[in-house]
Amino acid sequence: MTTTFPAPIRKTWAMVAHAPNTPLVREELDLAAPRDDEVLIEIIASGLCHTDLSQLEGKAAPYPFPVVVGHEGAGIVREVGAKVTSVKVGDHVIPVAIGECGQCGNCRSGKTNLCEVFLSEIATQPTPFSLNGERVSAYSGVGSLAQYVVMNERNVAPIRKDVPFHLACTIGCSVATGVGAVLHTAHVAAGATVAVFGLGGIGLNVVQGARLAGASRIIGIDINPMRDAQGRRFGMTDFINGAQVNAVEAIQALTGGGVDFAFECVGNVRLMQQAFDSTRIGWGCTVILGVPADGETMPIVPFMLQLGRTVKGSFMGNMQGRSQLPGLLDHYAEGRLNLDDLVTHRLSMASVNEGFALMKSGEAVRTVVSFAEDMFKGETA
Ligand SMILES: [Zn+2]
Ligand SMILES: [Zn+2]
Question: Where would a tag sit more exposed on the chain, N or C end, judged by fewer CB atoms within 10 A?
């Protein structure tokens, strides 16, 4: 038995990519009923992320087509399975790509967000979507460019109700990945120097994460000059136009030998190398956040590691989806995180292809789309 209001929801509108490099088209999909440990969520707002685009372009595309992309959603619980205890109908929630069972060794370690259940399912993530009996993939196990999704309870994070959905959704990927990488992967200390390669939705959140951590100097590197003014709104202290100067030399000069931490937020292996080279010998740490095209590798000369430098990476900022993620909205509500300047464009779901074009042109930082007319309101339940 499931708790249902007002009637069972077994169909959903979704924006579907049938093949790489084709426009998304609106389809009415069959939606699996939530099982005992599952939750049905009405998605009110969903942010567009670069990794969605990489899937759509077939560059870093782990999910078979047809696929519903989107993994940065926020919405309202509409049905819960009989064994679900931590959320109820009407709750505002974020569907999280990496679940948190709370019981496995990894969840209890306090060191990683990579729940062992997630790791065991990573190649076979379930999807609630089908069309004429054929499976339709849900990107990242979420597929939030849909009106409704069904998630396991461990992939559902309840959030406070006073943050509008079009801002709240951003914590599901870009804010978690960027801010989390600073606080939960690199553990940037007060006074540290930081370089951020790529000032898109992830990079600007690394910038504001570094500000939150008390970094003394936050250097942003991008080839888009618009990112200079945008970066400063999030706490960036210096901007380097990577198209005009040698970024590594410029960072070495600004910091007298290199930064304590460098973050790569693009997924370009050449930039990863530059990030590594811009860190200080002795203790400099490079954090890899960008997702390169399938099959690309980053070469490292072992001697460079013997000089005390390290390379780390994280998935969703190493933030645990249920116990840590919702706290990011407290930072927003209390004025420590800027989400308002992150969401530069808001579109109806019918214009989602335009949203991806805005991303490719570099005009948008985050575009948020919705099927719901009321995505810009706070409480709608
Ligand atoms: Zn993402
Ligand atoms: Zn777990």
Answer: N
Q: Round to whole Å and give the CA distance between 235 and 211.
A: 6
Instruction: Collect residues with CB below 5 Å from ion ligand 2.
Output: 101, 104, 107, 115
Q: Tokens standing for 321?
A: 């989806």
State the DSSP string of 323-348: TTTTHHHHHHHTTSS--TTTEEEEEE
Q: To the nearest 10°, report the CA torsion of 217, 223, 227, 229.
A: 70
Which residue has tokens 């929801």?
9
- The pLDDT tens digits along the chain (381 residues) read 555 566 789 999 999 999 999 999 999 999 999 999 999 999 999 999 999 999 999 999 999 999 999 999 999 999 999 999 999 999 999 999 999 999 999 999 999 999 999 999 887 888 999 999 999 999 999 999 999 999 999 999 999 999 999 999 999 999 999 999 999 999 999 999 999 999 999 999 999 999 999 999 999 999 999 999 999 999 999 999 999 999 999 999 999 999 999 999 999 999 999 999 999 999 999 999 998 888 999 888 899 999 999 999 999 999 999 999 999 999 999 999 999 999 999 999 999 999 999 999 989 999 999 987 655 444 333
Centroid of ligand 1 to alpha carbon of 257 (angstroms) = 33
Q: Give the span between the Cα atoms of 214 and 138, in whole angstroms.
A: 38
Backbone phi, then psi, for 100, in 5-degree steps?
-135, 100
- Cα(135) to ligand 2 centroid in Å equals 27
